Amino acid sequence: MFKCSSNNCNCHIFHKETLEKVSQELINDEKVNDIVEFMKIFSNDTRVKILEAIKDDELCVCDLGHLLGVTKSAISHQMKEIKKYNLVTERKEGKMVYYKLKNKFVSNLISNVKNELEEGALLWEKP
Q: How far apart are CA 103 and CA 7, in angstroms?
């Protein structure tokens, strides 16, 4: 057992080798902040539905609005947020703009979380 040398605490360290190993492998603060910022894309149910809807097929704002039961304005607002993360391709055909996910990373992430929820592996106290 070792005494913590930090000025912030007066605790005992029981597993020094493990603590040192974990400390070396810990993600740095800048990367943690980047991860937290990226995960904000999933903090809105309409955005998650849009991402799920365009995972395999191109859809325009009108079709997305109809599919999700929201206004074109609401879809456009959420697409503006999604585009900040560089997650979609955009194809214009006349006045119509079609969107599709750029890669499978986001759809795989959504699918993995959905599967874990269905299996009961992700549980938390819901408000």
A: 46
120 contact partners, CB below 8 Å, separation of at least 6: none
Domain residue ranges of the chain, discontinuous segments joined by +: 44-118
Q: pLDDT tens for residues 49-73?
A: 999 999 999 999 999 999 999 999 9
Q: How far apart are CA 93 and CA 99, in angstroms?
A: 11
Q: In angstroms, rounded to a whole number, what is the distance separating the alpha carbons of residues 45 and 41?
A: 10
CA distance linking residue 43 with residue 79, whole number of Å: 14
Strands (E), the chain: 2-3, 12-13, 59-60, 88-93, 96-101
Predicted local distance difference test score (pLDDT) of residue 115: 92
Whole-number average pLDDT of the chain: 90
pTM, two decimals, is 0.82
In CATH terms, the fold of domain 44-118 is Arc Repressor Mutant, subunit A (1.10.10)
Does residue 17 register a pLDDT over 70? yes
What phi and psi, each to the nearest 5 degrees, are found at residue 92?
Answer: -100, 135
At position 10, the amino acid (one-letter code) is: N
